[in-house]
């Protein structure tokens, strides 16, 4: 049975005379349609996720945004390399981030504070 090539060929912007009859051609056509279906479902899922995501929250994109806002607090682990590097940095904003950060004693304390809110 020959399937109408106008409907199937139009979906991929090809106008073929007939559909493949060899098993290898049918297999390639199956793989192509499977790829198209997966790609379409991934695009739809990504679009849905982006449209339903709440973008109204506070966005911090630069250090200045972090330093001027009052809603969030941040912390550094006391006496670690990151704190030392930030305190000795030539950029004043990095020094302010380290100076104004809450000092914690370890990773476990930081995770506990974060889960508490």
Instruction: Indicate the overall shape.
Output: elongated
- Major sheet size, sense and barrel closure: 2 strands, parallel
Mean pLDDT: 84
- Strand order within the widest beta sheet: 1-2
Write a structural description.
It is a single chain. This protein has 117 residues and is mainly alpha-helical. The protein is 59% helix and 5% strand. It contains 6 helices and 2 strands. A two-stranded parallel sheet has the order 1-2. Helix 4 crosses helix 5. The longest helix is centred in the N-terminal third of the chain and has 30 residues. The termini are far apart.
List keywords for this structure.
2 strands, 117 residues, single chain, mainly alpha, two-stranded parallel sheet
Write a brief caption for the model.
The chain is mainly alpha-helical.
Record the SSE blueprint.
Layout (H helix, E strand, L loop, with lengths): L4 H7 L11 H30 L10 H6 L6 E3 L3 H7 L4 H9 L1 E3 L2 H10 L1
Parallel strand pairs: 1-2
Helix pairs in contact: 4-5
